[in-house]
Every structure is written in structure tokens, then in C-alpha cells.
């Protein structure tokens, strides 16, 4: 059971406020490392989705690949799994398709090589993947907030300031 403080926060907040606040509190707790190797799966899911959503909004997968530098997530499986977990399977498929163009489905740690390989993906495919992601990105707030509501007790510690 979540704390009464968490229940009140969830009851009085919009889907956006829930998602954004939890993400910001995670950043306060863990720093801006956005490390996907957290043992708390709920924390990892919110971090990966909200971070990817912002990056995709700002410039599609190219921007996401430029900014994504967590050394624990270069296979990006945590990000795909997070979208699957909240029910955005089309977004997870877009990630999977993008990764299929990388050797063994693994994005290299080397920033320049990562972008060089991205540029080799045919433009029409990159545009299609970005189109899917853009459409799906508009649907993130409700399923992410619902995920947080269902797993509210996992986030109680974030309210202890």
C-alpha cells in the first residue's frame, strides 16, 4: 500500500504532473546519471520512458542516440522493455526496428560510430521509425501515470525529503 502522502499526490495530480514529478524526484535521488541498472524496476521504467520521450520530442531517434550515454544501457533493452511494460508496444517495435540496423542489435558506445551507423540506415526507414515514435510519444502520459499508480508504493521513498 502506498503512503497517504503518495495517495494524495496521485489523486490530486494530472497524468503529466505524476509522470514529470516522479521523473524529477528520481533525478534528485539518483542524480542525472539516468543509469538503467537500478534494481527497482519501477524506477527504471519511469526514468527510461520519460527520458526517451523528451529526447524523441526534441529530435527523434537521432537526437535520442546523440544524447543517450548511459553505459549500462547500450543495448537499449531496458528502454524497449519499459515501453512494452506500460503497453506501448508500437513504440517498443520502433526501438526494436531501429536497433536491428546495428551489429547484433547493439548500439556502440562510441558516439561517432553510433551516429555514423544511424546515418547509414535508409532515410525512408529512419523517417518511418521517427513517425511511429512521434505518434506513440503523444500517448505516453496516461499509460506511464497508470503504471506509477499501480506501482505507487515503489515510489514512496521519493516523497521522503
Structure description:
The protein has 161 residues and is mostly helical. It has one domain (4-154): Up-down Bundle (A middle domain of Talin 1). The chain contains 8 helices and no strands. The chain has helices at 4-11, 15-30, 41-67, 77-85, 89-99, 111-120, 123-137, 141-150. The chain is elongated and about 50 Å long. 30% of the residues are buried.
SSE blueprint and pairings:
Blueprint: H1 4-11, H2 15-30, H3 41-67, H4 77-85, H5 89-99, H6 111-120, H7 123-137, H8 141-150
Helix pairs in contact: 2-3, 2-8, 3-4, 3-7, 4-5, 5-7
**What is the alpha-carbon Rg in Å?**
16 Å
Low-confidence stretches: none
By DSSP, the count of extended strands is 0
- Helix/sheet category: mainly alpha
Strand proportion, as a percent range, falls in under 5%
DSSP helical segment count: 8
| Distance linking N and C termini | 19 Å
> What is the name of the CATH architecture?
Up-down Bundle
Characterize the main sheet. Answer: none
Summarize the amount of helix as a percent range.
55-70%
Please give the CATH class.
Mainly Alpha
Question: What is the general shape?
Answer: elongated
What name is given to the CATH topology? A middle domain of Talin 1
Could you state the order of secondary-structure elements as H and E? Answer: HHHHHHHH
Q: If you average the pLDDT, what whole number results? A: 88
